[in-house]
Amino acid sequence: MEIFGIPLQAFLGQLLLGLVNGSFYAMLSLGLAVIFGLLGIVNFAHGALYMMGAYVAWLGMDKFGINFWWSMLTAPLIVGALGVVVERTLLKRLYKIDPIYGLLLTFGLALIAEGVFRDQFGVSGQQYQVPDLLRGATNLGFMVLPNYRAFVVFASLVICLATWWIIERTRLGSYLRAGTENPALVQAFGVNVPMMVMLTYGAGAGLAAMAGVLAAPVIQITPLMGSNLIIVVFAVVVIGGMGSILGSILTGLALGIIEGLTKVFYPEASSIVVFVIMAIVLMVRPAGLFGKEK
């Protein structure tokens, strides 16, 4: 059976690959949207945090025998703690001045992190084994579905939707949103706004690290893995709407699928299709598909 002249199995294979890539786009853009939407910082270090999450998982396995499941807990905590230190020592000084300074600072931090990891581990890449429980594949009849890739899609959706629910539907989320809009008023009600801001940045860093752990068994772990992905993720955030949590999730998944299908029908355009869509969206709706017009 064929779809537009493409064998069904090849078509579905690319669709699955696009959905997996879209899951990573969604998780990374979610962390960016959380940090920008609640703190107003364009966090260019997000790709480096993603890379660090993958390396923490690999080092945990290689040096300490920590398995994949524990790495899903430890890597976000370690990288999130590093994010807290960065926020308390550097970023907190930039909140009341032009956002370009925050972008420049985080861009510099990303270059430093990439340089340190290149010096320590080189650029050849490290392999991370798929956990035993998720090895193999399931035959669906029309295609063979790798178990780990199916898990990545499921885990990403659960994490993204849980984050959206916390921010949009809980009292904690309402405190976060109110604290960024009127911190003096919220602090007058006894809420520790600086602590809340610090933990928000740490949570965004932890989301990036979680995406890195999930990516580790799928791709080679290199110091460049974050910088290779972050430009696409920024495009995803712009298309969805800067600061829109739900927009980042839906746009990330959709663009991953569109990119995967483009590789089937017009491979030459697969590397630029996201940016073409971004240009069109910005011309029609500058605030993004889910962003709020000012």
Question: In words, what does this structure look like?
Answer:
By secondary structure, the protein is mainly alpha-helical. The chain has one domain: ABC transporter involved in vitamin B12 uptake, BtuC (Orthogonal Bundle). Helices cover 71% and strands 3% of the residues. It contains eleven helices and four strands. The chain is globular, with a radius of gyration of 19 Å. The mean pLDDT is 88.
Question: Main sheet?
Answer: 2 strands, antiparallel
**How much helix is in the residues?**
over 70%
Low-confidence stretches: none
Major sheet: arrangement of strands? 1-2
Number of domains: 1
Order of helices and strands: EEHHHHEEHHHHHHH
Mean pLDDT: 88
What distance separates the N and C termini?
49 Å
Number of strands: 4
